[in-house]
Here is the input.
Amino acid sequence: MALPTEAQVKEKLTAVIDPELRKNIVELGMVRSIEIKPDGKVDVVVSLTTPGCPIRSHFQQAVTTQASQLDGVTGVQVGFDVLSDQEKSTLQQALGRGKLPAGALAQVANVICIASGKGGVGKSTMTANLAAALQAQGHSAGALDCDVYGYSIPRMLGVGGKPDVNGERKIVPPESATGVKTMSIGYFVEQNSAVVWRGPMLHKAIQQFLEDVAWGELDYLLLDLPPGTGDIAMTLAQLLPQAKVAIVTTPQPAAQSVARRSAEMANKVDLEVMGIIENMSGFTTPDGETFSIFGEGGGGLLADELGVPLLGAVPLSEDLREHADRGTPLVTERPDSPAAEAIAGIAGRIVASVPRELPMVQESPPTAPQPPKMGANARELPVVQ
Ligand SMILES: Nc1ncnc2c1ncn2[C@@H]1O[C@H](COP(=O)(O)OP(=O)(O)OP(=O)(O)O)[C@@H](O)[C@H]1O
Ligand SMILES: [Mg+2]
Here is the structure.
C-alpha cells in the first residue's frame, strides 16, 4: 500500500487543537518533525510550551488518532520536546498575548479567578469551598488569596502557621485538612496588622505568590480576588493570560450593573469570563419555605447579558457562614446540605468547561486506535472521527 506523504500527515494534524491556546498545533508551529518509515510507521514530534505540560497525553492521543486515519499507516509514535525561548516568544507574538505560564506555575493546568464588582458577596467563601469541593471530587486544587488587605483564605480553610521554604528556595504552600494547597499574605503578617500597599508592591506580592510558591502539579488553582476591579486584574492578566474569570453576584437585579463592571474589566485585559456564580440566593427554612432576601434571578440575567453560563446558585445558609468562620468548609463537612450541593454542582461545571489532563496513554497502539474516551471535556477537544 502506498505510504502517506508528510503533507498528508500535517493536514491531518490540523485537527489537533491545543485546548489552552485554542488553535491547531500545525498553525502554532508545535509540530517539530514528521517521519514516515518504509513500513508505514509514523513518528511525530510535538513541541510543548513547558516540559510539565499537563495536556501532553491529550496531544499523544489526538495525534495518534488523526495520523492513524491515513491509508498505509501501521503505527504512530508521538515524541515530545520543548519550544526554545525564541520559539515561545514567536508563539506569544503570534497569539498577541502576554507571558506564557512559567516557573512554579508550569504544572498548574487551570487558573480561575473568583471576582466580583463589589465586596462581601461571597468571593472568599466560594473560593475556599470550591477548592475544597474540587479536591473532594478527586482533582488537585489550590486557593491563592489575592486580597492582601482583607485576606480570608487561611481562616476559611482552617490553615495556619508560617510556610516552610524548600531546598529550591520556593515557599511551600500550607495544605488544608483535605489537601487544598493555600497561599496568603496572612501567613506573613502579624494578625490584625494593617497592610498598606500600593500598586507596585501589590503587583510584586502577587507575582511572588505565583512564581515563588511550589504549587507543584495542580488541576485547578483558584484565585480569591479583592472586591472591585483594578490593579490586581491588570497584574493577573499580565502574568496569567490564560486565566479564566468566574464572577460572583447576588440575586438582586440591581447588583448586575456592579457585577457587569468586573466583566468589562476582564474583557479589557483580555481574560475570558467563564461564567457567573449567584450567591446568597433564596433562603429556605427547615419547613421548606423559601425567602428571596436578596431578590431573584440576577445571576441568570447577568449570564444571559454576557452570553456566558450561569455556573450555579448558592442559597443563603447560616451553616455555610459558620463553617467558613470555623475553617471547616461546608462542602467537606456537610456535603448533603443544599449550599454544599450547589457548590459541588458549580465545581462540576467548572471541570466540565475547562480542559484538564486526560488519562495517560500508555503507548501508541500499533493498529487503528479506538476513539479517545471523552468525558466532560469533550467540547474542548478536537473533533476526531
Ligand atoms: N451563601 C451564603 N450564606 C450565608 N452567608 C454567606 C454566604 N456566602 C457568604 N456568606 C458570608 O458573607 C460574608 C462575606 O462573604 P465573603 O467574605 O466570602 O465575601 P467576599 O466577597 O470575599 O468579601 P470581600 O469583598 O470583603 O473580600 C461572610 O461572613 C460569609 O461567611
Ligand atoms: Mg474576600
